[in-house]
Design brief:
With 218 residues, the chain is mostly helical. The radius of gyration is 33 Å and the shape is rod-shaped.
Length: 218
Amino acid sequence: MQTLHRPGSTPRPSNSGALSGALIAVVVILGLILLLIASTIGSYNGLQSRKTSVEEKVAALDSNYKRRFDLIPNLVETVKGAANFEQTTLQGLVDARASVGRANLPADVTDPAQMQAYLDAQASLGGALSRLLVVAENYPALRATQQFGDLQAQLEGTENRINVARTDWTAAVRDYNTKLRSFPGNVIGGMFNFKEIAQYSAEEGERAVPKVDFGSKQ
């Protein structure tokens, strides 16, 4: 049946189209907001997990450093028993160990100054230890003792674990920094105060002194 309009009246326009368009716009905006929130959470969690990995790796490195630290007193006492052992080298190892005792692993591994002080102390100890072992090559009676041989083997194994732990830590730092520098990690990192972690190379003091294998000496 045809709808009749009274003379002078104007038909009302339908509001259904406008309401549908507004609803679509609201849904799109909400979707974008949810996507932004999800991206922010994902980036934040990614940065946090990588930072945690860095902390775990440097803790493993510190554990191996502590093991080396604990082996030094026994080595010093063993070397003291050798007649006329070079006292300057021995005292250098004792002093370097004392420096390590004053430079603990910092609570904040992103602090470059504290980390550098910690690593410098460890490098000094590693260098002093290597120099002592080189000098000990001139003391066959010392190298022939069972106690010295056992300590040398333990120290060699510890140095190998230190190298592996240092490599793992370096890789974790690189992964974290890459995530922090990339979008959207750089934006999220700035919002939540994530700091870049300095990349450290192998300690020069330890790397400069050659390794000596006393097991091959007769």
